[in-house]
Amino acid sequence: MNKKKVSIWCTTYNHCNYIKRTLDSFLMQHTTFNYEVIIYDDASTDGTTQIIQEYAKNHPDNIKLLIMKENKYEVTKKNFKWKNDLMLGVSEGEYIAFCEGDDYWIDENKLQIQVDYMDKHKECACTGHGAIQAGEEGLPIVIMQEGEERDLSPKELIIRKGNIMIPTASLMYRRDVLRMEDFFYQVGIGDYPTQLYSLLKGTFHYFPRNMSVYRYQCSGSWTATMRKDREKIFEHYLKMMIFSKKYDSYTKKKYHLFLEQRIYLYMNNLISFWKDSSKKEFENVCSKYESIDTLGWVEEIKKWYLMFYGDKFEDKKLNDFVSFSSSVYIWGTGVYSKVLEKYIDNSKISGYIVSENKKGQEQHHNKPVYTFEQIKGKNVNFVIAMNYDNYNAIQKKIRDFSTYYPFIIQSF
Question: For the chain, what are the domain ranges?
Answer without folding.
Answer: 4-223, 229-309, 316-404
